Amino acid sequence: MRNISPKTVQKIAMTAVWAGGFITVAILLLIIIYVLFQGLPSISLDFLLTAPQGGLSGEGGISTVIVSTVYLIGVTLLILVPVGIGAAVYLAEYAPSNRFTGFIRYGIEVLAGVPSIIFGLFGFVLFVTALHLKFSILSGALTLVCLLLPTMIRTTEEAIKAVPRSYREGALALGCTRWQTIAKVVIPAAIPGIITSIILCTGRAIGETACLYVTMGGSAAMPTSLLSGGRTLSLHVFYLAMETRAMDKAMATATVLIIVIVVVNAFTNWLAHWFYVRMNRG
Amino acid sequence: MKKLNTNLKKKSFVATLLVLSIALVTLAGCGGESATTATKTTTSTTYTLAGTITESGSTTVQPLAERLGAAFTALYPKVTVIIQGGGSSVGIKSATDGTVDIGAASRDLKDSEKPGLGETVIARDGIAIIAHSSQTVSNLTKQQIIDIFSGKITNWKELGGADKKITVVSREEGSGTRSAFEELVMGSDNKIVDTAILQSSNGAVRTTIAGDPNAIAYLSCGYVDNAVKVVSIDGVAGTEANVKNGTYKIVRPLLFVTKGQPTGLVKEFIDFCLSDAGQKIVSEDYISVK
Amino acid sequence: MKIPHHLTDKFAKYTVLVCAASSVIILAAITVFIVLQGMPTFQKVGVFDFLFGTEWRPTYDKYGILAMIVGSTAVTIGALAQAIPLGIACAILLAEVAPNRIRSFLRPAVELLVGIPSVIYGLIGMVLIVPAVRHIGGSGFSILAACLVLTAMVLPTIISISEDSIRAVPHAYKEGALALGATRWQTISRVLLPSARSGIIASIVLGMGRAVGETMAMIMVIGNAIAFPKSPLDPARTLTGNIAVEINYATGTHESALFATGIVLLIFIIVLNTITTVVLRRGIQKHAEHLT
Q1: Which of the residue ranges A143-147, A226-230, C203-207, C218-222 would you say has the lowest mean pLDDT?
Q2: What ipTM describes this predicted complex?
Q3: What is the pLDDT of residue B36?
Q4: pTM
Q5: What is the count of residue pairs from A and C with beta carbons less than 8 Å apart?
């Protein structure tokens, strides 16, 4: 091995990196392109606006599924955002560097690593069964809040920390109390960053399945209240693929899902960039 | 000055968000109310039913319950019937807990499950043996089926088919179809082989069989369609006709289970299921109880 | 009436403190609920029989999850064995080798892939991979199919974090190595990769967490059989799949056994994380010592 000249090793290694790396990314992208090719022909306004024909026929569109998804995410964010911002404010602005803070940070760290299905189990015993919320959008949303909280806290904390010190110093020097400084100067300045983390969480919520599979019930009907069951786009893909043979509909729903993710991604990147530029100017 | 301006803008943005969220909460609250007040208004001439009925449980009953629910809603537009899957055991458990109004089960209740529950047989259903549509084997004896599912016969050539390994597909433990199949076909001495592919619903079993040329499974007759082939048992195929005329013996009841005897809106719905109109829907894919 | 500022301040401080504590509270609640629900199984079946029992037949009161532990381990190792070399190759390609034009196209693509929901990978697995594996042998629903799906799922995570950490290595390191006459590959393999090791390890641990925790995509392609898998072409079941497939069908001890599976899964993930972190760190340290 030692006898081979570094130049030869270099050549071999570079070829391997090119081949391995390029082919890998190419295959991954081809998967997505395959889904889009299979799915796009089935997508029409009609598909988006008709209700699916119940769990097992696979016929129909995805209107009720879109409504359930939007409903679920709305309720989730309604709880997630204030709690997440509060926690982030505490960690970024108040938390003394002591054991208690370390404990909280550790808790967030561990919670972030807990698999989705465990949150599902938790939601199933606590929300669905013990609190009698049944298989419902509310149960799903509460479970999702628990799941997304670590992400929301971390990214929001970053956004708050990115606000330049001079903002706070200026406000304090003008006689603002600590809370006034936070509420009127720091948080407003961090809003683009906070929105970025909200969108990030939305993206994750859209893709989540396991914890919702055991808490939402999977009804394909139009949700009429928070206590209705429902299914998200991702769950719909799962049900279509598993329960029916309507793979074309599954692919079409998956395509919608990918498009949503692309848009969310692009928006997040754009916002993050904008925020970065703005902060560095200020 | 410019900063102040942007701050103001942001404030109005936050305010908008706040208003939106409050609106959403209020909306949600209203929705919740209408769902919980399942009212029955009786006027002198007409019956107007309103409210929500939730059902969950057996995936065998699910397509039937969906159709019955849709028909009931067509009669009473103010009623919402929410049908969810789960499985027979969860249906029975949910009805006992009061998590749902109606639990669906595709097997008889165990004695331990019976206390406090009201049960109504709404239909009967056969369990068919199915294989991939390209399968050449079309008749099996009951003993052969037991041997296949218990793992004693593992190749189609032992049954006169191609030299291919048999893929046994089964349902989860807790599934009503599975316990009915074990009770009616396998008997207590034969366990379903542990290498069997397990799927958690009738639909998933059908999808698997439709995709795998070497697979065999048991499936609720209500789910059989032309994507899969029905294999006869001792010369009798598990088709609707054979189930109806009594020649096919692997049949189990489909139950609606309620906490106590059904009352109010739930009773109206169950009565509708048992009515001529309801049983007509039942007989499209299952066997009417009348 | 106007509330004095210092009161608002206090109130706000404690409110945000409660928010911050919420995640610890949730974590505690999850642990308490799952342990409470799972405990009866450990008492009834016994911890040893539960962990090392090879038979899972709830109807016959047999609750052994060894086959699922093996299933989860097999798919995770299989997926990582493919994803780590490929992922690092991709990361090197994107960070150091590829010209800017290609990078500016591939980088956002990989970022996008990170966000693709796992059901989509599961769907692809059902439509393309399972039938393909069926040609090799067996029913197609297999550990192999699950490994391939998982590989595709964890790759983007590994690539994007590894690439970030390789790019974060100070330019001076690279310039120094090149100035000393090292080839480009020597610079990459002996300077950049060792310097970026903590990021690369983090990406692997994160990818592994995703692999062990993945549920729905696994249910879709692995066949969920309760038998002890003997070959990569056999169907199997993961710990996560065991919970998701049966939770809706379970009552009594059976249900409790699924919560006990959840406890095992949690401990499993913590242990795996620790081992990987320690082993990888040591291995790399040794490698680094060897070089110097």
Answers
A1: A226-230
A2: 0.89
A3: 35
A4: 0.84
A5: 259
Does the pLDDT value for residue A281 go beyond 70? no
Identify the residue whose tokens are 């006169």: B160
Using DSSP, state whether B15 is helix, strand or coil.
helix
Q: Are C189 and A13 in contact (CB under 8 A)?
A: yes
The answer to whether B52-124+252-282 and B125-251 have equal CATH topology is: yes
Question: Domain extents for chain C?
Answer: 80-244+273-291
Question: What is d(CA A264, CA A69) in angstroms, rounded to the nearest whole number?
Answer: 15
Residue C108 CB coordination number (10 Å): 14
pLDDT 10s digits, C45-77? 888 999 998 888 888 888 999 999 999 999 999
**The token pair that represents A24 in the structure block:** 């890998």
B52-124+252-282 folds as D-Maltodextrin-Binding Protein; domain 2 (3.40.190)
Contact B172 C246 (CB under 8 A): yes
pLDDT lower than 50: segments of chain C:
none
The secondary element (H helix, E strand) that includes residue A249 is helix A247-281
CA dihedral B12, B18, B24, B27 (to 10 degrees): -90
Is C120 an 8 Å CB contact of chain A? yes
Q: What is the pLDDT of residues B41-87, one digit of tens each?
A: 333 334 678 888 888 888 788 888 888 988 998 888 888 888 877 77
Contact B212, B132 (CB under 8 A): yes
The dihedral sign for the CA sequence B193, B196, B199, B202: negative
Q: How far apart are CA C272 and CA C208, in angstroms?
A: 8
Q: Which CATH architecture has domain B125-251?
A: 3-Layer(aba) Sandwich (3.40)
Supply the pLDDT for residue B201: 83
CA-only gyration radius of chain A, Å:
23
Of C63, C65, C64, C214, the residue nearest C152 (C-alpha): C214
Determine the pLDDT at residue C291.
54
Are the beta carbons of C112 and A261 separated by less than 8 Å?
yes
Task: Tell me which chains share at least 3 CB pairs under 8 Å with chain C.
Answer: A, B
Question: Can you give the pLDDT at residue C212?
Answer: 92
Which chains border A (3 or more CB–CB pairs < 8 Å)?
A: B, C
Nearest CA in chain A to C127: A247
Give how far C232 is from chain A: nearest CA, Å: 22
**What tokens were used for A114?**
């807990």
Q: How far apart are CA B286 and CA B222, in angstroms?
A: 6
Angle subtended at Cα B207 by Cα C150 and Cα A241, rounded to the nearest 5 degrees: 50
Task: Look at strands B197-199 and B139-140 and give their pairing.
Answer: unpaired
- Give the least confident one: A91-100, A138-147, B13-22, C226-235: B13-22
Q: DSSP for C43-63?
A: HHH-HHHHHH---EEGGGTEE
Residue among A150, A72, A235 at smallest CA distance from C209? A150
- The CATH architecture one would assign to domain A45-281 is Orthogonal Bundle (1.10)
Superfamily for domain range C80-244+273-291: MetI-like (1.10.3720.10)
What is the average per-residue pLDDT within B19-25?
A: 45
Strands (E), chain C: 56-57, 62-63
Sign of CA dihedral A271, A274, A279, B1: negative
Tens digits of per-residue pLDDT, B151-209?
999 999 999 888 989 999 999 887 888 988 998 899 888 889 888 999 888 888 998 99
Q: Which residues of A touch C26 (CB under 8 A)?
A: 111, 146, 149
Q: Show the tokens assigned to C217.
A: 């995509």
Structure tokens at A102: 């370390």
With vertex at residue B70, the alpha carbon angle to CA A224 and CA B199, rounded to the nearest 5 degrees, is: 85
> CA A179 to CA B90: how far, in whole Å?
50
- The whole-angstrom separation of Cα A257 and Cα C2 is 49
Closest alpha carbon to B95 in B34, B62, B53: B53
* pLDDT at residue B26 tops 60: no
Cα B110 vs. chain centroid, distance in angstroms? 19
